[in-house]
Amino acid sequence: MHYKNYYNYYNYYVYVLIISILYSYLQNIGFYGFSNDYYNSYTYKFLSEHYDIQHRLGAIIASFYIGETQVGVGITSFFLALSTGLLLISFFKIKSFQSVSIFLILYINILHIHPIIMSTSGAMRQGLLMSCIFISLFFIDNKKKFLSFFFIILGILMHKAGIVFFTIYLLTIILKKLLKIFSKRSISLILNTLIIFLVPFLIFLFNFFNYRPEFAIIGSDLRYIWLLINIFLIAYVIIFYQKIKLDYLKFIALFLFVHSIFALSMLFVGFSWEYERFNMIVSIILILFVGSVFTKISSYLFYSLSFLMYLFLTIGLGMYSVGLY
């Protein structure tokens, strides 16, 4: 089942393009400041030589220069802003939102919260991967399967976590098709069985990687918050999946479900830093998905309050204090 919406969203795409260009310019000239990663890594023209070929493209973009001017920040920020806007438009279509002013307020707010602002000059390769995921999901919504697959593949070249998200993407497709075959009574059984078998396997797999001591990304430890969110998301999908009507939201739900299984497995083997970053990539998707289950007015309120609180959290965590992230 797919939603029908005849409202013209052409203006939204124009606004997204204009804001993306302006946002990338402001980031590139240092209007918001630069992170430690920028000064330690991305001011080097040949940063790409230090990365493996499978995710070197992300390093090339992040450390790109034109003459003596570093423009990697601008390029990364542009794709972050553009992909975020496209993803937000998809959810506006789902709820038949028809307010340009609310769209712009939400959009500009999102561009200043932790996952985005941290990736503009800090976790830039991760930000490029996040952009690929957002655009891939946007094309899923628009029934452009080839383009969706292309961008999730492109994410592999941006960051080493790209292969994990590509795996999640494939598992989501397989799982969605599998759940179509079985009756509603079997859905919970299949999802629970997946957890029972996949978690031990992933723990075994992740143990092949080097163990790292526990520490947080930025000044505070967010692991326990994300632990509750992951558990809630898994439980929600198991209980309510069959009540989700739209194909796109079914895909998003299963994508977040499989992602949460991967995330919890990472936490169990001690990848605390990676666990927070891994969840950070999907945090915007998660908020948009949760808000989509409410009525139109409730969704407006949920999105407004959630992203505003996220902005306050971002400021409180010191993300706008140059050199702290």
**Amino-to-carboxy terminus distance:** 43 Å
β-sheet strand percentage: under 5%
As a percent range, the share of helical residues equals over 70%
> How would you characterize the largest beta sheet?
2 strands, antiparallel
What's the helix-strand series? Answer: HHHEEHHHHHHHHHHH
| Poorly predicted parts | 213-220
Number of domains: 2
What form results from the Cα inertia axes? globular
The average pLDDT score comes to: 81
Radius of gyration, in Å, reads 19 Å
Oligomer designation? single chain
Total count of strands: 2
Placed side by side, the strands forming the largest sheet appear as 1-2
Give the structural class: mainly alpha
Helices, by number, come to: 14
Q: Could you give the topology of this structure?
A:
Elements: H1 10-28, H2 36-42, H3 56-62, E1 65-66, E2 69-70, H4 72-94, H5 100-110, H6 114-121, H7 124-141, H8 145-154, H9 162-181, H10 184-206, H11 223-240, H12 247-268, H13 272-292, H14 296-316
Antiparallel strand pairs: 1-2
